[in-house]
Specification:
- The protein is an alpha/beta fold.
- The chain is 28% helix and 22% strand.
- Strands 8, 9, 10, 11, 12, 13, 14, 15, 16, 17, 18 and 19 form a twelve-stranded mixed sheet that branches. Strands 1-2-3-4-5-7-6 form a seven-stranded mixed sheet, with helices on both faces.
- Helix 9 packs parallel to helix 11.
- The longest helix is centred in the C-terminal third of the chain and has 18 residues.
- 48% of the residues are buried.
Length: 546
């Protein structure tokens, strides 16, 4: 008789970005009474420590998820809230040299509870801690029966400590705490105001600890960040405005630089903001600002298709500067088209139009800012003026971005220096690379390309692994050129963990936080929301001028 076999029904593996939407749906099913994650938060959890995030799939459906990060003992065993310790849900406080594994999310689909999926996910955590020689695992355990137990007349719990003791003595049944105790975790005190939204636990949690039996408590291993090499080659194109006869001639100019960057085996090439404005030179007459934007927006499908084809053909990731794009609701947005060499196409809208953009071109601001996954890790795009708003870069870095691209278009040195100084600040405060690309030259009969000023550059944090002045490379001022430099992403990891200053790790989450609209990162049609049309007339002629 022939032997038969069937496919495994259960799969437990490391979480991937393709799981983000399913994870969000699972958490909503499992914790209907608690606020849901945004997709941006889940992306951050996975990007910041992919080795610590696991999913369980049963018969092809995602039914379990757990998220962990590494923390130093002083943080992991201190009194804290969930928001503080997780960096507002992004897992952004992950410390690659931390000696404890901290669990901050665990959920199983209510329909499959009883299948021991929770135990299997706990085993994955334990195996990770043992493999890395960490001291153990710690987390804040919910007490979902506390509020009810404190209202009882019989067998009443007088408070969280009394409730915990009654659970240990089996006088009160709490399935969550009993599960954790059964899995070898021991309670070590109560955390107050841990999760204010958790009304069933009255915002309390039990600090639960599992100690790794394979680590000598008297001389635990010291974890250091290795000085590895994770090289990425970046090309920034300082583009000369020139008259073109038609769309094809324009694209030949762009393809020339893509070809050169690819010859140098660059991983990325970035073009300037509004780099498509030279298409207006083919119109034969100077158009009004509104006419010009309308004309440009009609090229959007052709530009997306052409850049995507180049990215595939030349095996390079293209940050397509920015281009005016008409949205489904009829508004014009300033949008960066990001075409990756795997064939995928992403968009990032400019969140803050400048006063000139809003007044002369009637450009509206976008609604969402998110990291973009690439084969070199997550990246972010901040179009010109957006780089002058530090909370945007911080969100991208919380989601895991290590390179932020800043296409810009400025007409004066003052405008350029605003972008340059702010971009350098973003690199320092977020311990990331920031890459600027701007236009140079001028075009007759194109009102918005009358004068340009740019000095494109690749900026770094200021610490020992990086260039002395925080500049990996920069172009000569106002000259068309391609500037190429290698950067080491592993240097960022080292600086964040062991650098002279550690801006990301040293944030005071107990004092302040950035509260994002929960729609950000979850928008399926991000082109809505009305904007104030009562915009005062700015000084000067129509110009982007970040």
């Amino acid at each position: 008789m022939a032997s038969t076999s069937s496919k495994a029904r259960l799969e437990i593996r490391q979480a991937k970005l393709k799981d983000v939407r399913a994870i969000g749906d699972l958490v909503r099913r499992a914790y209907a009474e608690l606020p849901a994650y945004t997709q941006g938060e889940i992306r951050g959890q996975i990007n910041n420590y992919p080795e610590g995030c696991f999913v369980a799939k049963l018969d092809g459906k995602l039914v379990g998820y757990c998220a962990t990060m590494r923390l130093d003992e002083d943080v992991a065993l201190s009194d804290h809230s969930w928001d503080e310790v997780t960096g507002n849900g992004f897992g952004a406080r992950h410390d690659p040299t931390g000696d404890w594994l901290y669990g901050y999310e665990m959920c199983v689909d209510p329909k499959v509870r009883g299948t021991r999926l929770g135990r299997r996910l706990y085993e994955e955590r334990r195996a990770l801690a043992e493999r890395l020689d960490l001291k153990g695992i710690v987390f804040g355990g919910r007490m979902p029966g506390l509020a009810r137990a404190m209202r009882r007349k019989n067998n009443r719990a007088e408070g969280p400590e009394d409730y915990l003791q009654k659970v240990i003595d089996t006088k009160i049944h709490d399935p969550v705490l009993r599960f954790q105790l059964a899995n070898g975790f021991e309670p070590h005190g109560i955390l107050e105001n841990y999760l204010p939204e958790d009304k069933a636990s009255r915002a309390y949690a039990v600090r639960m600890i599992w100690r790794n039996p394979y680590v000598d408590v008297d001389s635990p291993p010291k974890h250091r960040m290795p000085r590895n090499v994770e090289g990425v080659r970046i090309a920034t194109c300082q583009l000369q405005a020139r008259a073109v006869a038609d769309f094809d001639e324009f694209m030949r100019q762009i393809e020339y630089f893509v070809d050169v960057a690819a010859d140098y085996e660059s991983d990325f090439i970035v073009f300037p903001e509004m780099f498509t404005l030279m298409l207006l030179s083919a119109e034969g007459r100077e158009q009004s600002p509104l006419e010009a934007i309308e004309t440009l927006s009609e090229f959007t499908p052709k530009i997306r298709a052409a850049l995507s084809e180049m990215a595939l053909s030349y095996n390079i990731n293209i940050i397509g500067g920015s281009h005016p794009t008409r949205m489904p609701d009829g508004d014009i947005h300033n949008v960066a088209i990001v075409c990756l060499r795997d064939g995928s196409v992403h968009s990032q809208e400019k969140i803050h139009p400048t006063p000139n953009e809003a007044y002369w071109w009637n450009i509206k601001g976008g609604d969402s800012i998110d990291a973009i996954p690439t084969d070199c890790g997550p990246i972010g795009v901040l179009i010109c003026y957006d780089s002058e708003f530090p909370e945007l870069a911080r969100r991208l870095v919380d989601e895991g971005a290590r390179i932020i691209f800043v296409p810009f278009c400025t007409d004066s040195r003052q405008g350029y220096m605003r972008v340059r100084y702010c971009a350098q600040a973003r690199a320092i405060e977020n311990q990331c690379y920031v890459v600027l690309s701007g236009n140079v030259g001028n075009l007759p009969n194109v009102a918005n390309m009358d004068i340009q000023y740019a000095q494109s550059c690749i900026l770094t944090p200021c610490d020992f692994p990086f260039a002395r002045d925080g500049i990996a490379a920069e172009a000569s001022e106002n000259v068309e050129t391609l500037t190429i430099s290698d950067v080491n992403l592993a240097d960022l990891s080292w600086a964040r963990a062991e650098g002279t200053v550690q801006n990301l790790a040293d944030r005071r989450f107990d004092l302040y936080r950035i509260e994002w609209d929960k729609r950000v990162g979850n928008i399926t049609d991000p082109f809505g929301e009305d904007h104030d049309s009562s915009i005062s007339r700015p000084l000067g002629p129509p110009h982007g001028g970040g």
